[in-house]
Amino acid sequence: SKLTNLGHLEMTWRSRVHFHPLLVRILHKSRLRYYGKPEKTTDMPYQAYFEVADGSGMMSMVLWSSLCPEWYNSMKVGTVLLLEKYAIKDSYPFKTQPTPGDSQMKRFATIEISLNDRNPPTKISIIPEEMVKPEWGLPEVKYRFITRSDLDDLPHNYSCDVIGLVTFVGRAERARKRDHCEDFWLYRWAHAIDGTSDQPFILELFATSQPDVFERIHPMTYLVCTQMRVVRDLSENPSSTVYLTTSNESQIFITGWHKGQPYTKDTKVKNFIQWTKSQSEADQIKKTIIGGYYPFPRPPDSFSDY
């Protein structure tokens, strides 16, 4: 069929009602958002953002309502989609923006693709990777993996991806989303090492839309976390340690979930796998810990400092 591309859509969308099909690859995926309220009667109040790209650049795509339970788990980072009968809207200005792995990629930020079950009902097709042709010009998924030795030089809020061997995982804890509200964030702390430093990555892992992975993080698993943000205490406390926290677009993978993921081709991931082959599993198991309360960032040494 006749295809269009994202660059052409941005230039012509106001003058059209119907759009030609789009062929895009998913580069980023947000957590699933529930926006239901007691006074509203929406059947399926769900929404998820994706960043999709073709040869012309990258654009946001929003999955709405009943399409979320139907398609969210099938739409993975790296998946190629054929979209038909979609809508184009002005983009929502307050959404989070993931950091692209390819800094040269053009971003179309003024509009977004809207996929809904009506007005019009979108047709979504997933193209198997073995059927994707090079002449379609779809970009590959690129990452920003760092090692633990890189971390000390990175600024606050820097976006990166990490891989490591889990040596500690804490119990799940809850924090209120806002003061005096009934909604909570669920999170847990983890440590992971990659052989490039004596220090581990300290990871604050909020529950993403991957409960099966979040609940199964345990010592000695290979943990990959994407779209993490560097957190540095910019106040006067020099004893605080730098750590990484999840963002809205973070994805978490553990042993058993790595097969077929695009990051398996990354050089730093391959280097990490080589390092693990040189390690004694029995020695590493002795250093691992699971559960318990993990007070972090640590309070100052004396009460007067506090």
Short description, anyone?
The protein is mainly beta.
- Total strands: 16
User: Which structural class should the secondary elements be placed in?
Assistant: mainly beta
* Name of the CATH first level of the largest domain: Mainly Beta
Q: How far apart are the first and last residues' alpha carbons, in Å?
A: 66 Å
Order of helices and strands: HEEEEHEEEEHEEEEHEEEHHE
- Give the full name of the CATH homologous superfamily of the largest domain: Nucleic acid-binding proteins
Low-confidence stretches: none
Tell the overall outline: globular
Helical coverage, percent range: 10-25%
| Count of discrete domains | 2
* Main sheet specs: 8 strands, mixed
Computed Rg: 21 Å
β-strand percent reads 25-35%
The number of helices is 6
